Amino acid sequence: MRACYKTNVFNTDSLCSGGVVLAKALEKQAILLLVVQALYGFSSALSGTFVPVYLWKSSGSYMIIGWFTFAQYALGGLTFWLAGKWVKEHNKMHSLRAGIALSGIFYCVVLLLGEGAKDWAVLLGLLSGIAMGLFWLAFNVVYFEVTDPDTRNRYNGWAGLLGSAAGIVAPWLSGFIITSMQGERGYRVIFMLSLAIFGLGVVLSFWLKKRHGEGRYEWTLGLRQLKEKGNPWRRLFPAIAAQGVREGVFMFLVGLTVYIATRNESKLGLYSLITSLVALISFGAAGKWMGKLRLIWSMLAGVLMIGVVIVPLFWGVSYSTLLVFGIGTALFLPLYMIPMTTKVFDVIGRNQESAAHREEYIVLREMALTTGRLIGLTAYLIVIPNNHSPKAITWLMLAVGLVPIAGWWWMRSFLQQGDTRRQPAADR
Predict the structure, then answer these.
(1) In a domain? residue 85
(2) pLDDT tens across 154-183, in order?
(3) Is residue 319 included in any domain, yes or no?
């Protein structure tokens, strides 16, 4: 039976891929949510791409960057769990705005610390983790409320498209500014720009409707789901964790590797521009055609290819081989990410009772991602002190880059053709 809990803001009869039709197909609240997300993504891409580079340039230490990221992920996951009560029982828009505001404060603190930021890397990671946790918890709940099983593939395609568009302009602009202003001054300018854009995001968020929670937050609901025999989350949790293992390393190491290979921020910006342009096209195409593909095989192709594209780095970690890797990843990642995200939220909304606990299930999803990210980071922190040669880093990337294959294995029953919105029979 299809999910009976829906908050329809899409005109599903008139959806198409054109930007003009998008404006007609979505209600104002959904468009505004996409705008706020795009601003958050643009600001994060503007400076977030270069934070690991900034820390590495001042410290020369792979470990400092690893511990910064570990702290960021760990407290981000903890914030999801703790703030779940706030979002469940009160106005979730306060959490969204607080997350945006704290993201701005993070860059303000980095500005004040300057090159001394490396000495406070772990605490900065904690602050960044709290900010991201508050924002993405509230955002994911609102995202669930404005989509349904019929529209999530397309919404995720547009969200990926907008994120890619931000990734095209923002890192290239940052790299140009940093190179033109020769270092420290350039970093200060882009951090100030990020602060201003986060401020604009907070202002626009006040036009989003107040969304008060219903019911009481159940702290241990996620744990009970994992203990229950036959529960779909017993397969979803490890599948999502497999996604997190890859993300935990790739989200910071790729950009850092590009910079170390080139020693030029503008080339890192150009790299992000090229790969994000490819991702924009591939996410747009995937969002349009995903519903016509056999998800079980298209997702398998995606997880295999995002592993295969790492192989050219064994020929040498250079700008050209990194571009081959980046373009290949941008082409095939949507085949993996769109169904992965869509199916998880379909399970959350499979019936009215499940949808009523959407906050707890979104927290459970984040716990799985956090678990995977910390596993990936732990592998990084074990490998790097012993050997941080390009070959060792490539082997590490290949190892964690192949983990999503296990995620596909756990997701198979959710991807069967003709059963895209129903809970697998084995789990009923």
Answers:
(1) yes
(2) 666 677 777 777 878 898 999 999 888 876
(3) yes
**Can you give the residue range of the structural domain that contains 61?**
26-206+225-420
Per-residue model confidence (pLDDT) at position 339: 87
Whose tokens are 């993201």? That residue is 103
Contacts of 164 (CB under 8 A, 6+ apart): 276, 277, 279, 280, 283, 330
pTM: 0.83
Tokens of 139: 């955002």
